[in-house]
Amino acid sequence: MLSEKKELGKISVSELCQRADISRGSFYSHYNDIYDVAEDYENELIDTFFDHVRLLDAKNIMQFIDSIFEFIRQNDENYRLLCKSNDFLFAAKKLSSIASNKLLELCLNDSRLKDREYVDLDIQIFIEGILCEYVKCCRGFSAKTLDDLYDYTKYWVSGFISMRYQD
Q1: DSSP secondary structure code for residue 24 in this structure
Q2: Which end of the chain is more exposed for a tag (fewer CB within 10 A), N or C?
Q3: What's the pTM value of the predicted model, to 2 decimals?
Q4: What does the alpha-carbon distance between residue 79 and residue 77 come to, in Å, rounded to a whole number?
Q5: N-term to C-term CA, the chain
Q6: What are phi and psi of 21, to 5 degrees?
Q7: If you write DSSP's letter for every residue of 75-93 in order, what string do you get?
Q8: What is the helix (H) or strand (E) element at residue 88, kind and residue range?
Q9: Where exactly are the structural domains of the chain?
C-alpha cells in the first residue's frame, strides 16, 4: 500500500484491514495505528539487514561495504519503498547509527589503524551522506545510481584507509 499511496498518512487502518483480510479488532490488538505497522516493517527490514550473516561476519571494511551493497541490491524494492516515504527518518537514523558503529568497530579493532582522531566523526559523516544520497536516488532527486554510490563508497574507503592506516 505504501508503494501505491506514497505516504503512510494516506493509508487508513480500515483500508489496511480490508486488504489484509483482518478485523479492526485484530489490528488494534497488535498496533495502535498505521505508524506502528510501519515501524514494525522498518524494524524487520533493518533487523534482517543487520542479522545478515555476511554483514555480521565482516572482518574488514571492504567486506562490510560489499555485503551492504549486495544486500541492498537483493532487497532494493523494499528499501526504495521506505526511502520514498516521508516517514523514513526513524529508520534512516537507525540504519546510519548501526552502519557507523559497525564500521567504527572494524576500524578500532584493526591494529593497523594509526590515526584515531575524529575517526568516528569521519565515518558518521560519510555514512549519513551516502544514506542521504541513496534516499535522493530512490526518490528520483539524483541522477546517481546504486552502482555509482557503490563505486564512490569504494573510492572513499580506499582514501580513508590510505590516510588512516599503516602500510
Answers
A1: H
A2: C
A3: 0.75
A4: 6
A5: 51
A6: 60, 50
A7: THHHHHHHHHSTT-HHHHH
A8: none
A9: 49-164
